[in-house]
Amino acid sequence: MPNLKVKPSSTHGRVTHVTPESAGWTYVGFEMHRLKLGETVSGDASGREVCLVWVSGKGKAKAAGEDFGSVGGRMSPFEGAPHSLYVPAGSGWSVTAETDLELAVCSAPGGGDYKAKLIPPGVHPQFQRGKGSNVRLVTNIMPEDDNSAHSLLVVEVITPSGNTSSYPSHKHDQDNLPNESLLEETYYHRVNPPQGFAFQRVYTDDRSLDEAMAVENGDVTLVPKGYHPCATIHGYDLYYLNVMAGPKRVWKFHNAPEHEWLLK
């Protein structure tokens, strides 16, 4: 199995590149691009649908033959809601930076008759999940109930310092609906202030997979199967961008039985 933690390869251009082949799985792809003013990144038409997420900065966007104009605005993922753009399979796209720009490219197999669509802030308002030291702030970008994509599920989460997240431990690695869905998942992590770190554990019931990782600013973690909780440390907030996809566009998870008492 590939290393579950992917470090950024550089500080400029395409700094992160995860493909189904490199991850050893079938569905999810993820890239992070860091551009300077005036630089352009583009993607060719293919059989994969894409969700572009403006993690920070602004850029002029074109997709599927349509000009979407200037998109973005926040200068940090910890400040405000995201701008995103869905691009269906078979359509090209390009983004030209109007400021320093951090652009995430989330991808999965496409299909169906979907249209390119801008997803501005407020379409899915931020909400709080959890209680006590398990509080986190969630902003859905492409949730399962929006009927706007063939495979992709995309969400942002901010976990305040000293809190846990993706917890109590849950998994979604069985194609066994209505009880559980099979979804691969990536986590793109950011830390505020950036010199901090957080922790993530990925493990299965039988512990055939059991990996605990210290994640730093810009790291990507892979969740091919199993439970995958995160924990922050005092003084540092954690942002992560999740990309999920599988054979069915449904998020149905199974909680680790030994930790379900925390939900009562």
UniProtKB/TrEMBL annotation:
Signal peptide: none annotated. It comes from the Bacteria. One of its GO terms (molecular function) is 5-deoxy-D-glucuronate isomerase activity. The keyword Isomerase applies. Its EC number is 5.3.1.30. It holds the Pfam family KduI. Transmembrane segments: none annotated. One of its GO terms (biological process) is inositol catabolic process. Keywords: Isomerase. This is 5-deoxy-glucuronate isomerase. It comes from Rhizobium grahamii.
